[in-house]
Amino acid sequence: MLVPRRVNRLELLLLLDIDGSMVAFRRLGDRIKETARRGGGLGRSHLYYFHNCPVDYLYRDRERLEYVELEQVLHGLSPIYSCMLIFSDAGAARGVIVKNE
Predict the structure, then answer these.
(1) Whole-angstrom Cα distance, residue 17 to residue 89?
(2) How many CB atoms within 10 Å of residue 13?
(3) Domain-by-domain residue ranges, the chain?
(4) CA atoms within 13 A on the CB side of 6
(5) Which residue of 11, 44, 78, 89 has the fewest C-beta atoms within 10 A of its own C-beta?
(6) DSSP E strands: which ranges in 11-97?
(7) Rounded Cα–Cα distance for residues 86 and 90 (Å)
(8) Within a 10 A sphere around the Cβ of 17, how many other Cβ atoms?
C-alpha cells in the first residue's frame, strides 16, 4: 500500500524585540530563534526584528539596516497555515505606560 508523504505546511512568523529594555533578554531571544528554526519541525519560518512595537516596518537584520513593510510581510503569509510568535515586553520594562487618546 502506498502512503503519501506527510508535508508540514505550518509557517511561523517570529518577531523579536531588540535593543532598549530587551537587551537583558537577548540570549533568551536567540534561544527562541534557534529552537524555532532548527527544532520546530516547521514547514517554513520567517524571522524579523523590531524595537518596542512593530508598527510600520520590520527589520531583516539585528542591526536594523534592511527593512520591509509590515503589511508586505503579513500579506505573504498563508491565512490557513501561519502563526505568529512575538517576543517583546513592548517597552514595559522601562515603567512607561503609553495611553492612546
Answers:
(1) 8
(2) 19
(3) 14-91
(4) 4
(5) 78
(6) 11-17, 44-50, 57-59, 67-69, 82-87
(7) 10
(8) 21
